């Protein structure tokens, strides 16, 4: 019987997804400040002066969903947040609805592929790979949730000293996970595929009878 580390995939995915959604809802709720916006329909808070801040912007002209998901949209504020319709770091954001639908489809396909990969016996025996896939799954599902509920991704982390594109915790999970996956692919030898017990038994030569 071979040890499995699928629990690492589930654990890292759950922790990453919780951190992503908690931080998004929490920061946007905190910086809404009863609609008293200081700059372009939003507010910000300097974490590292002259370098890094939390920022939240809102779009009062964006209508709320006339469905059961309206409560999810208004938990942070009674108006919709301003979102990124594109991919990581704003790529493709100019096409709004088309881009959001396309990247939502990509996210669904990626999540399914990760789950299928994680169910493989040989993959499940590798703790580092399972943790890495958990991070990627967390980032994928975190941003997918935003695309389905808000028609775009909520970003709030901003290194404004170098004018780095605004991002979020899900993006961090995706970047770290992708980096770890690349490191493992280049520097770590993959485990050999494990044969089934039936095949192993068949490979053992029979003891000759006396």
Brief summary of the model shown:
The protein has 210 residues and is α+β, with helices and mostly antiparallel strands.
How would you describe this structure in keywords?
alpha+beta; 210 residues; four-stranded antiparallel beta sheet; 51% helix
Care to describe what's here?
The chain has 210 residues and is an alpha+beta fold. Helix content is 51%, strand content 10%. It contains seven helices and four strands. The protein has helices at residues 6-32, 70-73, 97-119, 121-124, 127-150, 169-187, 197-203, and strands at residues 42-48, 52-59, 80-81, 157-159. Strands 1, 2, 3 and 4 form a four-stranded antiparallel sheet that branches. Helix 1 runs parallel beside helix 5 (127-150), helix 3 (97-119) runs antiparallel to helix 5 and helix 5 (127-150) runs antiparallel to helix 6 (169-187). It is globular, with a radius of gyration of 22 Å. 30% of the residues are buried.
